[in-house]
Amino acid sequence: MTQAVATHEQYEADFRKLQESRSSDPGWLKDLRNAAFGRFQEIGFPVARKGNELWKYTDVRPLAAETFPQPAGVPASVDAAQVFPFDDGMARVAFVDGRFSQELSTPLPDGLVAMSLAQAYTEHSDDVQRHLSQHAPYADEGFTALNTAFLADGAFVLSEGAVQTPLHIVYVTTGRVVTHPRTLIVGRPTSELSVVESYVSATGGKHFTNSVTEVALEEGAQVTHRRLLIENQEAYHVATTRVHQSRDSVYRSLVYEAGGGLVRNDLTVLLDAEGAEAHLKGLYVTAGKQHVDNNVNIDHAKPHGYSRLYYKGIVDEQSKAVFGGLVLVRPGADKTDAYQEDKNLILSHEAEVDSKPALEIYADDVKAGHGATAGAIADEALFYMQSRGIDPEQAMLFLVRGFVSEILDSVTIEPLREWLVERTTQALPRFREAA
Amino acid sequence: MADLLLEVRDLHVAVGDNEILKGLSLAVNKGEVHAIMGPNGSGKSTLANVVAGKPGYTVTAGDVLYEGESILTKLPDERARAGIFLALQYPVELPGVRNRDFLRAALDALRESRGEDKVGIRDFNKLMQAKAEELGLEPDMMKRNVNEGFSGGEKKRNEILQLVVLDPTLALLDETDSGLDIDALKVVAEGVNRFGGPEKAIVLVTHYQRILDYITPDFVHVLIDGRIVRSGGRELALELEKRGYDWLREEAQAGAAPSA
């Protein structure tokens, strides 16, 4: 316990330093940070204990007990082609150790605003104040409170009209530090936007990423949001994504996880007006001693909502994956149509999956369903391929690629899709030589 | 016997504690078509599966030789690369694996093992399209996932497509005829006949003699309770069609009793 206290002292010292160093920030922002830090001190990190269903399978004590310094000095230079070689044809906004990097960022297409939050506080003050910290409340969320307390830089994205070029927001970590990346994406009415939000490590070794992303879809907006977690195998990564959907908006999400040592991904999509539509896909690939926990909530608050969740996982070696999904249909959200499914492929006897999709329905005339499966590669399938002359390793590779194709085929950016297919098999040590 | 391709010697096979094959012997020469007939549960599919190397069977005695060598310790893919092909009774669905990619990978695996170059994409497409057309398969089917959403007849035709594209030496056809209507049966039989020849051998496992109207066997073997109880020519199949299997079962039991 003394460790944890020491950690909090470190966070407090760093917080004071931040507030002093950013004295020119707007008053509302400094107040927000203050309130959030106060709340973090009261609630701390969530605890895996009986009765706390949301954190039942994921113990964050290792992360809470360790102190990571704030990034200091000039960030190391980053070779884009080496560290994130998958964004050909995209516009890019880059952050290194939590700070905006002009050098790694590219010009933007028409209709797209993408900049450092630090710049947006003044240039897009109205939009920022209307949305920032409005969708990701911190009152009951220790990690969000901490992120908000350290709110300084981050990404601000605003789309108007149909933006053809996909935007890549990349957060690179270059050493043993803690970062609190913050992203705010606003889709203006009837705009269309495709965003890739990625987290990568430039080096090996532990670091801690505590990200919060807010996505606001205004009326009829369409946002495709692909979140890639490809940090190194020792990284601690806690992600909180909160999506707010207005009338007739369409949110498409891909959560791709093939990295990180201890990972928790929290995604909540609030369908807060009639006719909102959400398509959520996910793929997690774990090996070694990785622990990856996805907690997804779909909150149907208004009638005529439509949601589809389809997550898949491949777990190998001694890794562990957790999927917790809740579809909530609130009173009055009649005629909701919701389905969620989580399918897992278990490649090792020592790997573990805890999957528990759930439904809570308080409205009428609702179509809703859920499913979860976990199993090994079917012997029948393996034999069938072998009986055609294909050796077992290649047959396995075929079947694994087949398994993930249902998710990755939704990636319409072809070079990215190809890179993800490759990355998926490379994330599994058994295929590293075969592929 | 320079042409001896497959030799099954006094083969005993069990699944768990249950003995399925109880001393089966069979010799297949190149250029021959053998039909294995018998009632359900007699061990016909077991024979085909054991020759192809499907896991789950225990060979308790006897041997299987292919081109003069025992193959029992070889993996299914090694047997396939040696020239053995099994058309499955129930072809397996492979979610997310495209039919075209699967077939091409299989062809490449065979070619590589023979020291040949991989097949060029254009040559492969040409070959595949020509063969698919012969079998009355929609070109679109090659883009779909292997057997996923295929009708029973499409699955069987897809097996025969693999047979004619991969062009093995020994084809084991496990009830390829069941579930096919007469038109589909003719198409499948034509495919098998085109495959056959003096350098090939076909072992046709079937419950019905119907397919033998289109694929003429040189030998018909009747398998009952794990043993071949009678072998004959084409006429044996016709006799079975008329009389069923019971008379052979009774004969076999009568014959087996004194020696037991």
In total, how many beta strands of chain B?
Answer: 12
CATH fold assignment of chain B:
Rossmann fold
Residue stretches of chain A low in confidence (pLDDT < 50, at least 5 long) are none
- Shape of chain A, please? globular
Give the strand line-up of the largest sheet of chain A.
2-1-5-8-10-12-14-16-18-20
The secondary-structure element order of chain A is HHHHEEEHHHEEEEEEEEEEEEEEEEEHHH
Mean pLDDT over all positions of chain A? 94
Tally of helical runs of chain B? 8
Name of the CATH homologous superfamily of chain B: P-loop containing nucleotide triphosphate hydrolases
Major sheet details of chain A: 10 strands, mixed
Q: What's the assembly state of these chains?
A: heterodimer
| N- and C-termini, Cα separation of chain B | 33 Å
Number of domains of chain A: 2
Q: What is the distance, rounded to the nearest whole angstrom, between the alpha carbons of the first and last residues of chain A?
A: 46 Å
> What general outline of chain B do the C-alpha atoms trace?
globular
**Quick one: which chains have the greatest interface?**
A-B, 24 and 32 residues
Strand content of chain A: 35-45%
Summarize the amount of helix of chain B as a percent range. 25-40%
How many strand units of chain A? 20
Report the average pLDDT across residues of chain B: 93
